[in-house]
Specification:
The protein is about 35% helix and about 25% strand. The chain is of the alpha/beta class and about 400 residues long. The chain folds into 2 domains: about 5-180, 3-Layer(aba) Sandwich (Rossmann fold), CATH 3.40.50.1950; about 190-395, 3-Layer(aba) Sandwich (Rossmann fold), CATH 3.40.50.10300. The strands form 5 sheets. Strands 12-11-8-13-16-17-18-19 form an 8-stranded mixed beta sheet, with helices on both faces. The two termini are about 15 Å apart. The chain binds cytidine-5'-triphosphate. Cytidine-5'-triphosphate (CTP) binds next to α11 and β16.
Length: about 400
């Protein structure tokens, strides 16, 4: 499970362990996460806002209002977060969380959080084992939060025992493990290609097609939501991704798309090639703009490399999925492509059916597997169709969702 591009809201409360939170911020940034920090007033005694803001690359918020009397919107902050971490969690804030109190920006963010909350308690030995503390920690767990157990060692009081905040490295390990456990595709690598390709004629013109990339983007996002590490090789497309964990490689021509896909394929578990790849490209590309002349103009085209077919020949462990966009004899053409390109299954759709195919927000797909089993789906949004494709891939791999 990667924390790359994950929005992490770190709440720091006032215990001596707060000095370790600066290191936690550094490690989270190193993981590629985007970090915002909220602190209680007491926490500021142990770690400075300046340190935290330099490390997190974001302003640190410690009150409902900033210096200019602008309101710090705790609801927006909590909504922004994919994950909330409270480290250290003092006995005092723990009791407030358990009771639902809201008297500072950290407790307000906690109460507003829709995301998973991880809390790393830190307190003295006797406080940690006090029945009230134990009860409050259980309450927090019952409310769906995860407690990162305190560790044993020398405490600020001079006593030795349980109560130290978990080391920042352990906090990150704990969070990554727990986020991964919940998702069926964690640890799996997925390659998706999408969009059109542009084949240059001269510096200002190209041969392209009407693919928007929407279907492939929806597939990449659906895999990512199930915990897979997804790379999307995307041809020229104006679409934006919502899922920040997807790594996007932008390409233009078939050759570029092929190179990007081939370099990833050997280390991929599932590859879905949905791009509308150009079948032909100009034999020569003019270095300067071609000028208009009298009479007709003809362009000599040569075949592009078939990315899917080439990867089909290299396939060993990968689940390989292709697309077939047809205007007629959909099933027969699709079946032929499964064989020719060595696929596990193919997603066939019509280029002429209303509300399906290029540019639309909906699609009507048929999945045909390598044993020629046909499954028809209703007309759905591309996101729902993507979920069906991902569910089919999971079923083929005998992975329970
Ligand atoms: N494909 C590819 N490289 C190409 C052409 C197609 O990887 N140069 C892939 C597409 O991404 C799709 C599948 O092959 O997953 C089928 O594409 P499609 O255009 O339906 O079929 P083609 O093989 O190009 O054959 P035809 O155009 O004759 O139907």
């Amino acid at each position: 499970m990667t924390l790359k591009n994950k929005h992490i809201l770190l709440g720091i409360t006032g215990g001596i362990a707060a000095y370790k939170s600066a290191h936690l911020v550094r490690l989270l940034i190193k993981e590629g996460a985007v970090v915002k920090v909220v602190t209680t007033k007491a926490a500021e005694e142990f770690v400075t806002a300046k340190t935290l803001s330099v490390l997190s690359k974001n302003e640190v918020i410690s009150d409902f209002f900033d210096a200019n009397n602008n309101w710090n919107n705790h609801v927006a902050l909590a909504e922004w977060a994919d994950v909330m971490i409270i480290a250290p969690l003092t006995a005092n804030t723990l009791s407030k969380f358990a009771a639902g109190a809201c008297d500072n920006i950290v407790t307000a963010c906690y109460l507003s959080a829709r995301s998973k909350v991880f809390a790393a308690p830190a307190m003295d030995l006797d406080m940690y084992r006090h029945p009230s503390t134990k009860k409050n920690l259980t309450t927090l767990q019952e409310h769906g939060n995860s407690i990162i157990p305190a560790e044993s060692g020398e405490l600020a009081s001079g006593l030795t025992g349980e109560g130290r905040m978990a080391e920042p490295e352990h906090i990150i390990e704990f969070i990554k493990k727990e986020l991964a456990e919940k998702l069926p595709l964690s640890g799996k690598k997925v390659l998706v290609n999408a969009g059109p390709t542009y084949e240059a004629i001269d510096p200002v013109r190209f041969i392209g097609n009407r693919s928007s990339g929407k279907m492939g983007i929806a597939i990449a996002e659906a895999f990512s939501k199930l915990g897979a590490e997804v790379t999307l090789v995307l041809g020229p497309s104006t679409q934006h991704l919502k899922e920040r964990s997807v790594t996007v490689i932008h390409v233009e021509s078939t050759e570029e798309m092929f190179k990007a896909c081939e370099s990833l394929f050997h280390d991929t578990d599932i590859a879905v090639l949905s791009a509308a790849v150009a079948d032909y490209r100009p034999k020569t590309v003019s270095g300067s703009k071609i000028k208009k002349k009298e009479g007709a103009f003809s362009l000599e085209l040569i075949k592009t490399i078939d990315i899917l077919e080439t990867l089909g020949k290299q396939k060993n462990k990968q689940l390989l999925v292709g697309f077939a966009l047809e205007t007629n004899d959909i099933i027969e053409y699709a079946k032929a492509k499964i064989k020719k390109k060595n696929l596990d299954f193919i997603v066939a759709n019509s280029a002429i059916e209303p509300d399906a195919g290029f540019g639309t927000d909906t699609n009507k797909i048929t999945i045909i597997d390598k044993h020629n089993k046909i499954t028809n789906f209703e007309l759905k949004s591309k996101q729902e169709a993507a979920n069906d494709i991902v569910a089919y891939a999971l079923k083929t791999l005998h992975i329970n969702a």
